[in-house]
Each structure stands twice: as structure tokens, then as C-alpha cells.
Amino acid sequence: xxxxxxxxKATCGYCAMAKELLRQKGAPFRxxxxxxxxxxxxxxxxxxxGCSTVPQIFVDxxxxxxxxxxxxxxxxxxxxxxLTGA
Length: 86
Fold this sequence. Notes:
This protein is of the alpha+beta class.
């Protein structure tokens, strides 16, 4: 399984949706809460090419994007191969 990281905030509905899709796929992930942690949010934005909204999702250091990007990747058939390393 790839290393999956998702930067989140507690009250973010999009974060909850992204985590739910990953759970449905059986993909374990590490959640990085950025609530009240400007240093973590700055690191997230740096890794995400300036994107400062949550969630931001990374699979094996590859920036997937946010929730909409994750669902679009799934609809296009690209998420499962990414999660299985195929």
C-alpha cells in the first residue's frame, strides 16, 4: 500500500468526504490536522504548490489535490491503480 497523507481541519465537510472515499477503498491514511497549526498549514501549502485549502491529499509524495480532485481521479479510473501501486 502506498503512503497516503491527508491534511485536514475538524469542521471541514470536504475533508470528511475525502477520508470516507479512502476508507471505502480500504486505503489506510495518515491524517494531519492543521487546525490552529500555522506551521503545518504552511508546510501543506508548500508541498501542494501554494494550495492552502483543505483537504490536500498526497499519495507517495504525489500531490493528488483536494476532495474534488480525489473524486475526479476515482471517476476517471485513476485512483485504484494509484492506491494499489499498479
